[in-house]
UniProtKB/TrEMBL annotation, chain A:
It comes from the Eukaryota. GO terms for cellular component: GPI-anchor transamidase complex. GO terms for biological process: attachment of GPI anchor to protein. InterPro entries: Gaa1 (IPR007246). This is Similar to Saccharomyces cerevisiae YLR088W GAA1 Subunit of the GPI (Glycosylphosphatidylinositol):protein transamidase complex. Pfam families: Gaa1. The keyword Metal-binding does not apply.
Automatic annotation (TrEMBL), chain B:
InterPro entries: PIG-T. Keywords: Membrane, Signal, Transmembrane, Transmembrane helix. It comes from the Eukaryota. The chain crosses the membrane at residues 563-586. This is Similar to Saccharomyces cerevisiae YHR188C GPI16 Transmembrane protein subunit of the glycosylphosphatidylinositol transamidase complex that adds GPIs to newly synthesized proteins. The keyword Signal applies. It comes from Maudiozyma saulgeensis.
Length: 585, 622
């Protein structure tokens, strides 16, 4: 204590506190830099960890996989029939009925879930002898994959696998096979119905494996594994590790986060950084961009991954690909408890490298501190002397904040019913121009109030980021970085008026940090799947089809803060000219 | 020890002389007379005991085979009025298991039912359960008993003692049955039957208490079968029980072991305690096996891919050396019981009035023959008596195995599932589907653990058939019984008597909250979840039938069990900090900055050295 007392005394003696307070914007910018550096050093050697199987019971690839030899003939047999469906343009209903009869031939209890909006889904349950029927593993095969291609190889493989599974006496969890029309809304609708209204159920689902092999070839090149859940959820790292380990054990290359084939083997700082950043991107836009099936299972404590066979030429055959789900099922089958041993929050740097939440969370925390610092700055560094927090301006700002919150909520709801991205962007460009267009100072807009609005704007942003960062780090991190330009906005009227470039800079910062404009720009830059205005349709569809909250996080978490900051730049009257007791909204 | 030696010696004596001393000639009841008469009917092999065993094999659709083993035995008669201090009294166990009878007497059990069941009974394909479901339980262990006691408390004490003893005898966790798992069924388990049968009270001031409990997460395995075999007089060494082998029995799709013990008294007036009584025990083992997989596993224990020549392809679809659309399962099948059970039947049992009997319930397109040593013999009724001490086997074959002697259809299908999202609340959904053209009246018995806090106010009924759209809950439920749970002391008990209209599907849903458990209340495999015992449905009218739904797995929010240590560390740190600060405040003197600087100035080493120097210099006189 003595040491601290001395230090405290020295600090006071040297008058560091006021000096520090004066430098708050610089401190905040420094913090921002530190946060970025902290993320950037994660892929450096010594900062990340090698993956490992935490749950001993899993024992991936410890049992020999027998899905080979003549099983290939059977897969081909099924495939030739499924190809017929596609060639003859068989309706979904007929196709489901036909496949249902195939499944019943080897003792699967089947049912078709009818849904007029999201299409019918065929599913079947293999009641297994070793279990008590309370738990299940799902093998999910969308008829059409995320790209809209007919999943002919996947469907043949799925039926062949299930037939093969039915001969094994080892299963202790029921096996459910699901054929939905697509991996997005119809699969999600089935998962939801499974937990609300289906009559034929097979116990709680522990894990789900999606198979995507949209080719009638016998061969494939490498395997892409998708694992992102919705709303920042990820499958337990153990399941992902098991999937990766088994795929590599069977001699296939694993690509994560859509890495192209020629970069799979790269292992160095930049490839790792790239994989990590792609992971952050994919997780931010999970549900917004095209889905692979694993997203549909997100929630309900179901761990899900998608195995996608890439390329139809290569030296890997379809049964080798089939041995991956086989071995994953064998591993998950060993579990006595739910997945709980390994991490639920992580970033993947390479198929066998990861960092856990403790490594990357601090940088998101620092970002939220940046906004809190700017808020403090707006409170103490005003030209109006001593900062008193509880005054009339605070109350007015709070009222304004509440109004913007309600307005943002209404906007978010309105946009769901009338999805017109052009209008939305146009409206927002208009909003960014308002500070420019208002030439005459508004009479009630006195300057201390604009500073106080700023305080609340940054504080709200910091609060939103803080509450988001643990559950959805990628989204919080993206939001924190993308809205950073709003901290560069100047409020002091004299400066803005006097300096044309400051005014221009203000407008640029406001435009760049507008949530909708910013999301539009970034999605077009980083994601080839989300071009032009796709991101808005994706956001709405993600909410409607998959109950993914990203749209509301942007509307209610980011937009009100932006509105407040924009408002603070509106030309205001000086304090000495206006009676402060006038306006209360 | 001495008791068993006595029994052994007595048995030996009886066998040698072939004589039995009639204990009481003045018996009035004919039934007991029959039993005793039979006992006197000696044949060359020796004395016969009231014991019967029987095996019923029944092919089920899709090449499944149901084998039902039935063992029935009676205890020696006894007089409940005999006081235990009577010096003439001796306990004599012949074939009735000595492990059981003293237990029944000690705990005043009048009826005991114990079930070990596991697996999936496909009632859509296979029809009714064996014995109309009255001999099978829910997944896991189920125990219910009718106990005589002077109060509920007394009866519970005996029930607890019974559970503990059975736990030891059957190597199962039955001792985990406690207050929070015990229920007193009201509508279910046929109380009417109890009145009609006239279950005896040994002491007319006492009452009978029906108690029920089930352990849904109990795995059933060999160590439960072995004790059961030990209860049989043949000990699994001869007769049909010699077929029972843990490896094969538990390698099945569905299996069930049941023990039912009832007390029978011969006196017309069951409330006087002078009559002669005996215990009747039935043991049942039912098992369903999928024949082709067992035959395939006998060939090769690992279901490896078949060779190209062994593939059965659908000839109506393209097939060649590369592709093969598999044909549906073959309907030509032949097997012997030794293939299914891995053993032959070693001889008959020599203890009973009747020979061990094996019956095959088959349709015309099936053939069943008995193989005695090396010869095959058939009978008209497909029943075979095992008369000699030789090796037997049953051989069965069919060219169209899917045509089987059809079991009657199930009067109702019931399934139950958990609904909802999240860790703090959920829902239960039960679907009743009556495929018949008659309304079905049934009783519904559900017991839920106390940590599922159900809200009956959320009970909703949904009808899928259009005709019954206006049906309300009150229309189908004629009486209900609800015993709310008490935390850690009592489970929720929910019973209805209801009628499901013909050709109608009804779903009942209600919601519940998940309670938080104490840290130590979690089982070692805390993240597995908690099994919710089956719902028990008993059809009350026309053809009685009992069925149970599958058990469910309920997840409660489970703490990370390393967390308490983190909490201890953090709270210790905070307490340390607080203590340090307070200690500082209390023990230190508060001074102003100026004073403090003065004091500091006099304390610095430099100052002290200077003072010392001065003092030395002054001593030296400079």
């Amino acid at each position: 204590m003595g040491l601290l007392t001395n230090l405290h005394r020295k600090v006071i003696a040297m008058g560091l506190v006021p000096k520090f307070l004066k430098q708050l914007p610089k401190v905040a910018k420094l913090l921002m830099l530190i946060s970025l550096i902290m993320i950037a050093i994660i892929p450096m050697d010594g900062q990340y960890r090698r993956t490992y199987i935490s749950e001993n019971a899993l024992m991936p690839s410890q049992a020999y996989s027998y899905f080979r030899e003549s099983e290939w003939n059977i897969v081909r047999g099924y495939r030739s029939q499924i190809e017929e469906f596609f060639k003859n343009n068989v309706t979904a209903q007929e196709r489901n009925l036909e496949v249902e009869s195939w499944l019943q031939d080897f003792g699967i209890k089947t049912s078709i879930y009818h849904n007029e909006v999201h299409q019918d889904t065929l599913y079947g349950i293999l009641h297994t002898p070793r279990g008590d029927g309370t738990e299940a593993i799902v093998l999910s095969i969308p008829w059409y994959n995320g790209d809209g291609e007919f999943n002919v190889g996947g469907a043949a493989l799925g039926i062949g696998l299930l037939r093969y599974f039915s001969r094994w006496p080892v299963w202790s969890k029921n096996i459910i096979i699901v054929f939905s029309e697509n991996p997005r809304d119809s699969l999600r609708a089935w998962v939801e119905a499974y937990h609300t209204s289906l009559d034929l159920t097979g116990g709680s689902i522990e894990a789900a494996i999606n198979i995507d092999y949209a080719s009638n070839s016998d061969f494939l090149d490498y395997v892409e594994i998708y694992y992102d859940g919705l709303n920042g959820e990820l499958p337990n790292l153990d399941l992902l590790n098991v999937a990766i380990k088994i795929t590599q054990h069977e001699g296939m290359k694993v690509s994560l986060n859509g890495q192209p084939k020629d970069t799979i083997d790269d292992n160095g700082y930049f490839p790792r950084l790239r994989t990590m950043l792609l992971g952050i991107r994919d997780s931010t836009f999970a549900g917004v961009k095209k889905t692979h099936g694993n997203e549909a299972f997100s929630g309900w404590r179901i761990q899900a991954v998608t195995l996608k066979a890439c390329g139809d030429e290569g030296n890997i055959d379809i049964t080798t690909f089939g041995r991956v789900p086989e071995a994953i099922f064998r591993a998950v089958n060993n579990l006595l408890e739910k997945f709980h041993q390994s991490f639920f929050f992580y970033l993947i740097l390479a198929p066998k490298n990861f960092v856990s939440i403790s490594s990357y969370l601090p940088s998101a925390v620092i970002i939220s501190v940046v906004y809190a610092t700017f808020s403090l700055d707006a409170l103490v560094n005003t030209p109006f002397g001593s900062p008193i927090f509880f005054n009339k301006e605070s109350l007015v700002s709070l009222v304004i904040l509440s109004i913007t919150l309600v307005a943002s909520y209404l906007l978010s709801q309105l946009f769901i019913y009338a999805t017109k991205p052009e209008l939305l962007i146009g409206f927002n460009i208009l909003l960014t121009l308002i500070p420019f267009l208002i030439k005459k100072p508004l009479s009630f807009f006195i300057e201390p109030l604009t500073y106080r609005i700023r305080v609340f704007g940054y504080l709200y942003m910091s609060l939103a980021l803080t509450s988001l960062l643990v559950i959805n780090f990628p989204l919080a991190f993206m939001m924190g970085i993308l809205s950073f330009p709003m901290t560069l906005v100047q409020t002091e009227q004299s400066k803005v008026l006097s300096n044309k470039s400051t005014a221009l800079k203000n407008m640029l910062c406001i435009t760049l940090s507008n949530p909708f404009i910013s999301i539009l720009i970034i999605s077009n830059i980083v994601d080839s799947e989300l071009q032009y205005l796709d991101v808005f349709y994706g956001l709405i569809s993600a909410w409607k089809d998959l109950s993914c909250w990203t749209w509301f996080v942007i509307c209610i978490g980011w937009f009100p803060a932006w509105l407040l900051i924009t408002m603070s730049t509106v030309r205001s009257s000086r304090v000495n000219t206006v009676n402060t007791s006038k306006k209360q909204q | 020890m001495s008791n068993s030696i006595t029994t052994f010696v007595l048995q030996g004596l009886l066998l040698i002389t072939g004589l039995v001393i009639a204990t009481d000639e003045s018996l009035s009841n004919t039934e007991t007379k029959d039993i005793n008469d039979q006992k006197f009917r000696t044949i060359d092999t020796g004395i016969q005991f009231p014991y019967e065993e029987r095996l019923n094999v029944r092919p089920l659709p899709h090449n499944h085979l149901l084998s039902s083993f039935e063992f029935q035995m009676n205890s020696e008669p006894f007089f409940p009025s005999d006081s235990s201090s009577n010096f003439d009294k001796y306990d004599h166990y012949t074939i009735f298991p000595k492990a059981i009878e003293p237990l029944l007497r000690r705990t005043d059990v009048r009826q005991l039912h114990l079930r070990f069941t596991r697996g999936f009974w496909d009632s859509e394909e296979w029809g009714r359960l064996p014995h109309d479901g009255f001999k099978s339980g829910g997944s896991g262990v189920e125990l219910w008993a009718l106990i005589e006691g002077n109060s509920k408390k007394d009866a519970y004490k005996k029930w607890k003692s019974l559970a503990n003893s059975l736990s030891g005898s059957f190597c199962a966790s039955i001792n985990f049955i406690d207050l929070s798992k015990t229920n007193y069924p009201v509508f279910s388990f046929n109380p009417q039957e109890r009145e009609n049968e006239g279950i005896p009270l040994f002491n007319s001031t006492n009452n009978l208490y029906l108690m029920h409990a089930s352990l849904a997460n109990e795995p059933i395995c060999t160590e439960n079968l072995t004790p059961l075999l030990k209860l049989l007089p043949s000990k699994g060494k001869s007769g049909i029980s010699s077929l029972l082998d843990g490896h094969k029995l538990f390698d099945s799709i569905w299996h069930n072991m049941a023990i039912d013990i009832t007390t029978q008294c011969v006196n017309d007036d069951s409330y006087s305690n002078s009559g002669e009584c005996f215990y009747e025990m039935e043991a049942n083992v039912d098992v369903v096996a999928h024949i082709p997989s067992i035959l395939a596993r006998n060939k090769n224990p690992i279901p490896k891919p078949l060779g190209g020549d062994d593939l059965h392809c659908d000839l109506s679809k393209p097939y060649d050396a590369y592709q093969c659309f598999p044909s549906p399962e073959t309907s030509e099948i032949s097997f012997s019981l030794s293939d299914i059970f891995g053993k032959n039947i070693s001889g008959s049992n020599d203890l009973s009035f009747t020979h061990s009997r094996i019956c095959a319930s088959i349709s015309e397109n099936w053939l069943a023959t008995i193989k005695v040593d090396d010869g095959l013999f058939g009978t008209d009724d497909n029943c075979f008596d095992l008369t000699e001490n030789r090796n037997y086997d049953i051989y069965m074959e069919s060219g169209s195995s899917n045509k089987v002697a059809r079991n009657d259809d199930v009067p109702i299908y019931v399934s139950r599932s958990l609904t909802g999202y999240g860790q703090d609340h959920g829902g239960l959904r039960t679907v009743f589907s009556n495929p018949t053209l008659e309304p079905v009246r049934l009783s519904y018995y559900e017991s839920l653990p106390w940590f599922m806090r159900i809200y009956l106010s959320t009970l909703k009924m949904e009808v899928t058939s259009d005709i019954y759209q206006n049906l309300t809950f009150n229309d189908i439920v004629e009486s209900q019984y609800y015993m709310p749970a008490i935390d850690r002391k009592r489970s929720t008990q929910l019973e209805f008597i209801m009628t499901i209209p013909a050709n109608c599907t009804i779903s009942l849903t209600y919601e519940f909250d998940k309670a938080l458990l104490h840290f130590t209340e979690y089982p070692p495999d805390a993240n597995h979840g908690f099994e919710i015992e089956s719902l028990i449905i008993t059809i009350l009218e026309s053809a009685p039938y009992q069925l149970r739904t599958a058990t469910l797995l309920l997840y409660l929010s489970t703490p990370d069990f390393s967390m308490p240590y983190n909490v201890i560390i953090i709270s210790s740190t905070i307490m340390g900090l607080i203590f340090g600060t307070l200690y500082n405040l209390i023990t230190k003197r508060m001074v102003t900055m100026d004073e403090a600087e003065k004091i500091l100035a006099t304390r610095s080493i430099k100052y002290k050295v200077m003072m010392l120097k001065q003092r030395i210099l002054s001593k030296l006189g400079f």
